[in-house]
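#lab-general

N.A. 3:47 PM
ok so I finally got the sequence cleaned up, no stray characters, all 193 residues accounted for. can someone with queue access submit it? mine expired

B.Y. 3:52 PM
send it over

N.A. 3:53 PM
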Amino acid sequence: MNVIKRIIPDIVAIVVFAVISFAYFCPAVIEGRILSQHDSVAGIGAGQEGKEYLERTGERTRWTNSIFGGMPTYQMAPSYDSTDMLKGIENLYHLYLPTYVWYVFVMLLGFYILLRAFNFKVWMAGLGAIIWAFSSYFFIKSWIIFKASLFCSTSLFICSSLHFCVAVLFLKSKMDIRSRQPPIHYVLNFVFV
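B.Y. 4:20 PM
back already:
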């Protein structure tokens, strides 16, 4: 019972973060509008050859001729059977929220967990997360920044065992590789270690 009383403020903060995230994108989410982003549209176009090959043969191609005169597809869309579990973990992290909503939600949640790991009070951690998440720069790499703050705070919370720390680092590394940002992955591993 004491544990439940202790975590209720944190659960309320998470619900408030979800509400704030929905409110931020309210008209777009309710009306089903989609923000057309050049990177997303270009990615769909670049993956069209692989999609057609999958439909035609039932197998995934590991090479495409549609970019740079030919290149491997692992940087474009790492679609291996082993990534299905990681996709499920990522969906759990952002509570199955709509795409644009979870961008804000994961930034709020990640920084909140980090501040709570440093023993900030709930209201201070919540306010700090809101201020941090809505600074414009962080919208660029929200998912990667969220993972960095989440895994660093996880290590602060429960990494009394070296084996657990190594397991968390490997999970973070797999998710970084899946997000196709090697330079950021490299730097964040140094921060994490």
